[in-house]
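INTERNAL TRANSFER SHEET
From: sequence group
To: structure group
Subject: Rhamnulose-1-phosphate aldolase

Please process the attached sequence and return the structure record in the designated field. Keep the field labels unchanged so the import script can parse them.
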Amino acid sequence: MQTIINSWFVQGMIKATSDAWLKGWDERNGGNLTLRLDDADIAPYRADFHPQPRYIALSQPLPQLAGMPFIVTGSGKFFRNVQLDPTANLGVVKVDNDGAGYHILWGLTDDAVPTSELPAHFQSHSERIIATGGKDRVIMHCHATNLIALTYVLENRTDLFTRKLWEGSTECLVVFPDGVGILPWMVPGTDDIGQATALEMQKHALVLWPFHGVFGSGPTLDETFGLIDTAEKSAQVLVKVYSMGGMKQTITREQLIALGKRFGVTPLASALELYQ
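Return from structure group:
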C-alpha cells in the first residue's frame, strides 16, 4: 500500500535534510526547510492525515498563501533524525482560506509544531512566488560553515560579498547572477527578520544572515540545495585563499562579463561594476 512516507515530497525532504546534516550545515536543531506543494500532491494520501488536524494561527496573516499546502521541518527537530522518523520530524500543513493560520494535516506527532522560522519562510515564499512567477517552491535555511565565516571577515555588503563569491568559483556567476542579499544581524524567529529576509528575496535567491547562516530559494529541493552548495564551495575556497595571505590574481570583470554572455544571464550590476 502506498503511504505518504513513500511520496516524492517526503522522500525528497528526507534526502535534503540528511545531505545537509552530512555537509555539517545543520548541527543539533539548526536549520529548517519548507516545500510548497499542490493539492494534487497530497490528495492521494488523505487516509494518512490526522483525523482532527490541529490549527495554529499565524502571527501575521498571509492571504497570498491562502489554501496552499506545504511540507515543513519541525521546531526543535534535528535534521539527522528526519530519516529515522519522518512522521515526528516533518509535517504537511495547509494554510486556511484567508491566510490567517494553518492546519497540520500530517506528521509533527506528539504536539510538535513547525519550525520557529516559519514566518520567515512563509513571507519569503510569498515574495519568491511573485519574483519567479510561481516557479520557486523551496525555502532552505542552514548554517553553511564557510559562508558564516566570511561574514566575520568581509564587509557585509551585497555588492562586495557577491563579487567575492563570483571570484571564488567560476560557476558562481552562472548559478546566482542575481547575487547574495545580506541583512544586518537580527534576532532569529521573529516577524522582523522574516520581513527583512522577504524584502531581500524580492531581488535575490540567496540571503545571508551574518554570523548565523543562509536562506536559499529555488524551484526544487535539488536546485535549492545546489544553490547553497555552490555558494558554500566558493566560500570555502575564499576562506583558504584569505588564510594563505589573500588573492594574488582573480577572475576579472571582463571575464565575468564574458561568462554572463556565454550562459545568457544578467549579472548583478552593482557587483559587476564594484571595481575593475
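Handover comment: The chain has a mean pLDDT of 95. Strands lie at 32-36, 54-57, 69-73, 90-95, 101-107, 138-142, 180-182, 206-209, 213-218.
Transfer complete.
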